[in-house]
Amino acid sequence: MLLPAPTPGRPTRSLRWAATYGVAYAVASLSCTVGPFLAVTASALRSTTPLGAVGVFLAYAAGMGLVIGVLTVTVALAREGVTARLRRALPHLTRGGGALLILAGAYVAYYGAFELRVFAGGSAQDPVIGAATAIQSELARLLGDIGPAWFAVALAVLVALGTARALWRARNHRAAAPRSSAAEPSEPSERG
User: Fold this and answer.
1) pTM for this structure?
2) At residue 192, does pLDDT exceed 50?
3) Transmembrane helix: present as a keyword of the record (predicted)?
């Protein structure tokens, strides 16, 4: 697979750029999503028919696609104003992201030690793991209460807004083009 060479500056808003971004995002997110994906699909393969397993796989893909779709369309619709504010906040966001990364790494190491302790016959009760599991369960319940329909509606609204905005800009650009050419001075004529 050939990927375009990275170029400095602002990315273009083309289908090719969006597809390349999507592939890069998918590859980068594998480390976060491969665990839940394997757990969901493995449990579906053990407990349902082959058609049911395909259904679980498609439901998982649709759910992930909706969430990523909403995020991607939101980012694509963000214009320079949002980008400028984010650039000003970038130093703080970088530090905050680094702190979150350290906390996540510490939790993963702690969880690994917890699992080793449980496999060695130790207690499965742990206040840190219990708190993290409770938070995760609450977030999963909230997302389950919202349901995929609202994510689909949000994606449809964002796509409709993006399409309307693109059509409006194209119409204004076409309307402004004749005015700008009429406003340009013509070349001076030669007098003999």
Assistant:
1) 0.45
2) no
3) yes
Convert 78-114 to b/e letters by CB count within 10 Å (16 or more is b): eeeeeeeeeeeeeeeeeeeeeeeeeeeeeeeeeeeeb
Residue among 41, 32, 29 nearest 108 (CA): 32
Please name the amino acid found at residue 5. Answer: A
Report the helix count and the strand count for the chain, using DSSP H and E.
Answer: 4, 0
Report whether 56 contacts 41 (CB < 8 A): yes
pLDDT averaged over the chain?
77
Single-letter code of the amino acid located at 8: P
**DSSP code at position 163:** H
Supply the DSSP string of 83-146, one letter for each residue. Answer: HHHHHHHHHHHHHHHHHHHHHHHHHHHHHHHHHHHHHTT--S--HHHHHHHHHHHHHHHHHHHH
Helix axes of 80-119 and 127-183: crossing angle, nearest 10 degrees: 160
Please report which helix (H) or strand (E) contains residue 188, including its range: none
- What span, in angstroms and rounded, lies between the C-alpha atoms of 15 and 96? 32
| Residues with Cβ within 8 Å of residue 29, at least 6 apart in sequence | none
CB burial of residue 64 (10 Å; 0-12, 13-18, 19+): middle
